[in-house]
Known about the structure:
It is a single chain. 75% of the residues lie in helices and 0% in strands. Helix 7 (120-135) runs antiparallel to helix 8 (139-152) and helix 12 packs antiparallel against helix 13 (228-241). It has helices at 9-31, 34-40, 49-59, 68-78, 85-97, 101-114, 120-135, 139-152, 157-170, 173-186, 191-203, 207-220, 228-241, 246-256, 262-274, 278-290, 296-308, 312-325, 329-349. It is mainly α. The chain has a domain at 48-157: Serine Threonine Protein Phosphatase 5, Tetratricopeptide repeat, CATH 1.25.40.
Amino acid sequence: MNERKTATPGIHAIWIRVAAGLLAAALVATLLLSNAIRIRIQRMEEANAAAAANNYLLENTEYVGLSAWERIQKVVRQMTDQASLESHYEKASIAIAQGENETALYHINECLALVDESSEAYEELKMKQGCLLALLEDYEQAQTVFDEVLRRAPGNADAWLLQAQLLLQKGDVTAAMEHLRRYISCAEETADQLSVMAQLCYGAGEYADALIYGEQALAMAADDAAYGELFRCMGYAALLSGDDRAEKYLTSAIERLADTDPELFYYRGVLRLAREDYEEALVDFDAAIGLGYGTALAYYNRGVCYLTLEDYERLLADMQKVVELNEDEELTQIAQQLIAELTVGSEQES
């Protein structure tokens, strides 16, 4: 840490009169950041039906995994076969691999017109139809398709998951959580599945469930080195729910993620500031700001650290930055008051 510059005795005497009240206001504002945190944290794994649908299609389309030569053979074969079920299915597969979703949906619909509803292929075709509709942002129709799949095959874990994503995107958290629980009851319980469940629960605002599933995933994982995103999710879930494990999870995320999000440092700094570990909090706020998280709150909270450590020169610089950014009226007013007191102290000292 850089050596701090302390105030002269004259300035320090002024702070004996004013710092207690200002510091109290500053710390209260810091400790009551839950609303700001709710606004600023970008939830990982928010409802993203398109991504989920695309993943399903790519994982369940044979053509995607073929070599270039095998793909060429299939394309040539389709040029001479225009009407059969196999032809439409392979054309749909080619279109899926190429991201041509409207074309793929056309051929899947043609397949559905050619198969009996009792056919084993019907469920798979309906799943792909639903995914393609989601990718084309026809979410209502996609939900209708997945509802039909689940009526026919209540053990289809992928359908429960995809429908949950659609419900989350729609904002129906209660129904989405019920679908997620059905998904986990149908799916093979692995560390990866539980990790997905934890992150989806976090996206739905179900923080307690996110932590439960996250802990289960970590307990099952042979090596947690690849679970940086899960630790990030659990850190934010713990932070928002007031769980004491938040700092531990955020630290684990920082240690495991190659491209560290500056917000991880920022929110760990908030936690350290709340427990009055000012020097460690200062390290985190320095890191967050250095990585580009230059918000008024970041400068303000770093300024609180400088205040408690009596580094008034750097405190003044950060409060001036808060005023310059002017992102929050209350923070700006506190910063202006601090600047005024520092200025008076400097003038009296001179």
